[in-house]
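User: My instructor asked us to take a sequence, write out its structure as tokens, and then describe one feature of it. I'm not sure where to start. Here is the sequence I was given:
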Amino acid sequence: MPLLPPRWRLVLLGVAALSLPVIAGIVWLILTGSFGEVRGLVPAGPL
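Assistant: Let's start with the prediction itself. The structure tokens for your sequence are:
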């Protein structure tokens, strides 16, 4: 498999940089939704 041209490497780097925080946020929401009451990870909100 040949190496990608530099432009495609920049595009892939940008997509990864944008998608990592989104994935981390989804994982964080899943964890806080499942274990928030036990571990106290959810910030105080309306009861």
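For the description part of your assignment, you could build on this observation: The CA atoms of residues 10 and 44 lie 40 Å apart. Try explaining in your own words what that tells you about the chain.
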